[in-house]
Design goal:
Elements lengths: L23 E14 L2 E8 L2 E7 L17 E10 L14 E12 L16 H6 L1 H4 L3 H23 L3 E2 L16 E4 L7 E4 L4 H9 L4 E10 L10 E11 L3 H18 L4 E2 L6 E3 H7 L13 E3 L10 H8 L3 E7 L7 H13 L6 E5 L4 E2 L8 H11 L6 E7 L1 H18 L7 E2 L1 E5 L4 E3 L6 E3 L10 H7 L9 E6 L2 E8 L4 H10 L4 H15 L6 E4 L3 H8 L30 H6 L24
Parallel strand pairs: 3-5, 6-9, 11-18, 12-19
Antiparallel strand pairs: 1-2, 1-4, 2-3, 4-5, 7-8, 9-10, 10-24, 13-14, 14-17, 15-16, 15-17, 19-22, 20-21, 22-23, 23-24
Length: 608
């Protein structure tokens, strides 16, 4: 570390140790806490490195001025380090074996009355924490999260270089392009009526770098999307590890990312990490077994399809759904037959809250079956359930009957809720997997037309042959997601680098060559001059750090986040601008007749 300035300190607070006993030092920091022990004042002084206890004797000339100091005032002390007595050693502090006897003091920056406490968590509402984020960042837990973030990014850079990648920077002002979310637009002063866009991702630029022959690219890339907040998604802006590789297959991308993820998650956590190669689960299998395409594999429960058992059942609530093209999905939970009736009633209520008409269940006990629906089922159907679900005495099976997509969604939520209530989710581990074989196309639910389902720039499996000869809804793409503990860290793909295949893929979705050339001319023109096979991925830095910090909300690992309404309460953004600024940009603002202005919440915001 660079030698520190001698004007305000000769050592950092948290780095003083027993080797400094009898040494005269100077320290500066914030007053973390004050305690009066019979006239002798004990102050915990804090800087970025930690705390040190400062002892102030009543005989000191500056003692009387203590009554004017407030917590979080910035002060500088000169003094001598001494050893604490055995009975006063604080083993919880790295500096707990010593203390500083103050001989001189200087106030460097006075503090006003605090809007919330720093030294302890006083459950301040989030709108206050964000308005005074500079104070919130003084808290130990949040400060440690930000240090963790910086260390993770530094380690990413080192590891990526070891893996043969070169770091690039791509433009922040670019053209608008459809990436799946709304763009943030920036008006051009010198080109009236035209706009730049902040990049939703450096997608086209990194592919162009592959065409330029740079082979392996990475960037800690800022990305901008005008989308709503969630617990694992920050509105407005976020950072991702943007990666692209030339002359690679899907397996090559997986190998590089598995090496990186294993390195990071083992270095910054003591939890177990999935052994490589990470499990690969097809999209269709994930939707069936887990009810979503980002499964939490710490949950041992899985979903099975039992539709065939009920095709001709006398139980019309199930057979009627199957005859109309729906499905019956089931979740078996081993050994919980002793749960009280309230547990099952609560699970039925939960299923209804997440959109189900109900939740059937059967409790398999040694002598009898307990169930509201068992009287409607034949012995053959019950025997088939036992066989299909591999039921043992003591097991319970839950049923959802709906249209396929809705059944998957509800069964997935029931699976998660059961594991949560029964404490089945494995602790102290990071469980990674790849979701692969996404469908290239889907039906638009509003127009019933063929549309891209995931990423229009992906290479279809089977190339041009599949686009020409297959039903579009049966075509799979070289698209993949990496998931950890139920959180999607990133999507990625092997790119469609062949112009003729790209034109055909867009043609299937109703876009002609002219539209493709207008929207993606820069990239597709580059492909006409010799493009290598290439692919990439872009894991979210915020989400990785959120997992490593064991935080439920992404705002806890971002230094200056927006709130859930995409507002910066500290800097008052977004804000109005002057008429002069608008005239320079050739912009006239027409406000809607009715507009709802979202006020900052006055209590802690719920997670989305």
């Amino acid at each position: 570390m660079t030698e520190i300035s001698q004007r305000y300190r000769t050592i950092h607070c948290g780095r003083i140790g027993e080797s400094d006993i009898d040494r005269k030092i100077k320290v500066s920091g914030w007053i973390h806490s004050v305690r009066d022990h019979g006239g002798i004042i004990f102050i915990d002084l804090r800087d970025f490195s930690g705390l040190v206890q400062v002892v102030i004797d009543p005989k000191m000339s500056f003692y009387q001025s203590l009554e004017n100091w407030r917590l979080e005032t910035v002060v500088c002390f000169n003094g001598t380090i001494i050893a604490r007595t055995k009975e006063t050693v604080n083993s919880k502090l790295s500096t707990g074996a010593i203390e500083l006897v103050a001989e001189d003091m200087e106030v460097l920056g006075e503090s006003e009355v605090l809007p919330f406490q720093i030294a302890k968590d006083d459950c301040a509402p989030e709108h206050l924490r964000l308005k005074y984020r500079f104070l919130d960042l003084r808290r130990e837990k949040l400060r440690n999260n930000i240090f963790l973030r910086g260390n993770v990014i530094s380690e990413i850079r080192d590891k990526m270089r070891q893996l043969g990648f070169f770091e690039f920077q791509t433009p922040i002002l670019t053209s608008s392009s459809p990436e799946g979310a709304r763009d943030y637009l920036v008006p051009s002063r010198i080109h009236p009526g035209k706009f730049y866009a902040l990049p939703q991702a450096p997608q086209q630029f990194k592919q162009l770098l592959m065409v330029a022959g740079f082979d392996r690219y990475f960037q800690i890339a800022p990305c901008f999307r005008d989308e709503d907040a969630r617990a694992d998604r920050s509105p407005g802006e976020f950072y991702q590890l943007d990666v692209e590789m030339s002359f690679v297959t899907q397996d090559d991308v997986f190998q590089a990312m598995e090496e990186l993820m294993t390195h990071l998650f083992k270095k910054f956590s003591t939890k177990k990490v999935t052994a490589t190669p990470f499990p690969r689960i097809s999209y269709r299998e994930a939707m069936l077994k887990y009810g979503c395409d980002k499964p939490d594999l710490r949950n041992p429960l899985t979903i099975i399809d039992v539709s065939k058992i009920f095709e001709n059942s006398a139980f019309n609530a199930f057979s009627g759904v199957v005859k109309k093209g729906g499905v019956v999905r089931a979740v078996k939970v081993p050994g919980i037959s002793a749960q009280p009736r309230k547990f099952f009633d609560d699970m039925v209520k939960f299923a209804q809250e997440v959109g189900s008409k109900g939740l059937g269940y059967i409790v398999f006990e040694t002598e009898q079956l307990k169930s509201p629906i068992v009287k409607f089922l034949s012995e053959t159907e019950i025997a088939s359930i036992r066989t299909e679900a591999q039921i043992s005495d003591g097991d319970v099976i839950f049923f959802v009957a709906e249209k396929e997509q809705k059944a998957a969604e509800i069964a997935g939520k029931v699976r998660t809720e059961l594991a949560t209530r029964l404490n089945l989710i494995e602790k102290d581990c990071f469980k990674f997997c790849w979701i692969v074989d996404f469908p290239m196309f889907e039906l638009d639910p509003e127009t019933n037309a063929i549309a891209f389902s995931h990423n229009p720039f992906s290479m279809p499996q089977g190339g041009m042959d599949s686009l020409v000869n297959k039903n579009p809804l049966d075509i799979l793409a070289y698209q993949y997601d990496i998931v950890c503990n139920g959180i999607e860290l990133s999507s990625g793909a092997i790119r469609n680098h062949r112009p003729e295949i790209m034109y055909k893929a867009f043609e299937i979705c109703g876009y002609g060559k002219e539209t493709v050339n207008n929207k993606f001319g820069g990239m597709i023109n580059a492909f006409k001059f010799g493009a290598p096979p290439h692919g990439g991925i872009a894991p979210g830095v915020d989400r990785m750090v959120m997992l490593l910090a064991d935080e439920p909300n992404i705002r806890e690992v971002i230094a200056f986040p927006f709130n859930q309404q995409a507002q910066d309460l500290m800097m008052n953004a977004p804000s109005e601008v002057t008429e002069k600024q608008l005239r320079e940009l050739h912009i006239k603002v027409e406000m809607p007749k009715k507009i709802h202005v979202q006020e900052p919440l006055k209590s802690k915001e719920p997670e989305q």
